[in-house]
């Protein structure tokens, strides 16, 4: 094979340091550090990660590499990365009992504020038979549950009415409303009456 013929393609050879298996002790520490295959995580050998020789470190490294899933019984559902949008949607799902007065849901774990670790998000697709009856139009379709709920007029009116009812219930009536502003206003009101 002629040596002056150009090589087509890519070739790569890693530049691994020489291993010293002998019993010789090197006089300088620098030589000993460079002769070992294992280097700290900050140092890579020729741009590649070489796993450590220590079995404890290897086991720790392997545990980190295993993907976090819900288990075999849950078809290895992966743990989701929670974005601010997903967090809002999950919080709304926890408070779904307060959204609609006509629907009643089973009591969930309201005391635990922790969000679920394993869940999946999907898109509801209506069958062809519901094209005219209960289909969402393109304008009504939103990217998140939060956007859908905020754009719903009926839910907005219900929320406003409920807030008004709660405020009226908590608002002091009669003589008590003067107590809010302090004793000075109470005296002025008394003077006006006499």
UniProtKB/TrEMBL annotation:
GO biological process annotation, one example: RNA processing
Biased composition regions of type Basic and acidic residues, renumbered to the chain: 169-179
Compartment annotation: Nucleus, Nucleolus
GO cellular component, one term: nucleolus
Fcf2 pre-rRNA processing C-terminal domain ranges (all copies): 67-162
Pfam families assigned to the protein according to its UniProt record, in alphabetical order: Fcf2
InterPro entries from the UniProt entry: Fcf2/DNTTIP2, Fcf2_C
GO molecular function: RNA binding
Chief place of localization: nucleus
Coiled coil stretches, renumbered: none
Source species, domain of life: Eukaryota
Ranges for region Disordered: 17-36, 169-194
Keyword annotations: Nucleus
Protein name: Fcf2 pre-rRNA processing C-terminal domain-containing protein
Source species of the chain: Nicotiana attenuata
């Amino acid at each position: 094979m002629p040596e002056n013929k150009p090589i087509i393609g890519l070739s790569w050879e890693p530049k691994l340091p020489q291993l010293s298996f002998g019993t010789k002790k090197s006089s300088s520490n620098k030589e000993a550090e460079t002769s070992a295959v294992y280097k700290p995580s900050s140092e890579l050998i020729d741009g590649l990660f070489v796993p450590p020789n220590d079995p404890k470190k290897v086991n720790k490294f392997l545990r980190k590499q295993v993907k976090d899933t819900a288990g075999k019984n849950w078809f290895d559902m992966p743990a989701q990365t929670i974005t601010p949008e997903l967090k809002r949607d999950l919080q709304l799902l926890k408070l779904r009992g307060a959204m609609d007065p006509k629907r009643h849901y089973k009591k969930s774990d309201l005391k635990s504020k922790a969000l679920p670790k394993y869940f999946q998000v999907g898109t509801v697709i209506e069958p062809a038979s519901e094209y005219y009856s209960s289909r969402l139009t393109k304008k009504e379709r939103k990217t998140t549950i939060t956007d859908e709920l905020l754009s719903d007029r009926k839910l907005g009116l219900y929320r406003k009415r409920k807030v008004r009812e709660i405020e009226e219930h908590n608002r002091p009536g009669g003589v008590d409303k003067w107590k809010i502003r302090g004793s000075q206003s109470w005296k002025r009101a008394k003077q006006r009456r006499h």
